[in-house]
Amino acid sequence: MPRGSRPAIVVVDFSYGFTDTQYPTAADMSAQIAATRRLTEAARAAGFPVIYTVIAFQPRELATLPWLKKATGMAALTVGSRLVEIDAATGIRPDDPVIVKHGASAFHGTNLAGLLTGAGVDTVVVTGATTSGCVRATAVDAVQSGFTVLVPADCCADRARPHTTPPSMTSTRNTATSRTQTTSSPGSKAWRDRRPAGHCARRASGAKQ
């Protein structure tokens, strides 16, 4: 599959509500977080954008959003709580943009597409949690927004099977297959390292918010 010259890493929902096992919505995602951190650090060194997302709700929304009537455990993810803070183990930096979303996709109802377009991004590398929900939805919407998409399997975690590649990864791979590829973090970094030097010269000016 052709790959572009200007990637961005989108780290989906590695917040404490999903990564700290003291919470019922979480699972052990330490291996996937470590793999993602290696990828984001390589991206920053090359001058590529790194963007984080978190799902968070205002208390007034809890009784009205249909999704929360089905996924009742998500109601704990309220603005201002520790559950919606990005896990420090990801290596997030103060100047990294954080997209706050209210559903599965990091694109739906957010400015993510505009942020990526403004940064000159043509390829989105989707990592994070959970594979069967927010990662998949973000990958689908990235394709529909016109981006080529890579999904490093070792950088994606799922609460149901946190230590293995879940069946949902196959579903992600098969979604809009002409523009989506499941890969690995070493594979993503190897592709980055093959880019001409000019592509790594600067960090995109639109990568901050």
Question: Any overview of this molecule?
Answer:
By secondary structure, the chain is an alpha/beta fold. The protein contains seven helices and seven strands. The protein has helices at residues 16-19, 30-46, 66-70, 112-118, 131-144, 167-174, 185-193, and strands spanning 7-12, 50-55, 98-101, 123-129, 148-152, 156-157, 180-183. Strands 1, 2, 3, 4, 5, 6 and 7 form a seven-stranded parallel sheet that branches. β4 (123-129), α5 and β5 (148-152) form a beta-alpha-beta unit. α5 (131-144) runs parallel beside α6 (167-174). The protein is globular. The two termini are 31 Å apart. The model is unreliable at 162-172, 174-178 and 196-209 (pLDDT under 50).
Please compute the radius of gyration using only Cα atoms. 16 Å
Into which percentage range does the β-strand content fall? 15-25%
Order of helices and strands: EHHEHEHEHEEHEH
Report helical residue fraction.
25-40%
Q: The biggest beta sheet, please? A: 7 strands, parallel
Task: Name the overall outline.
Answer: globular
Distance between the ends: 31 Å
Number of strands: 7
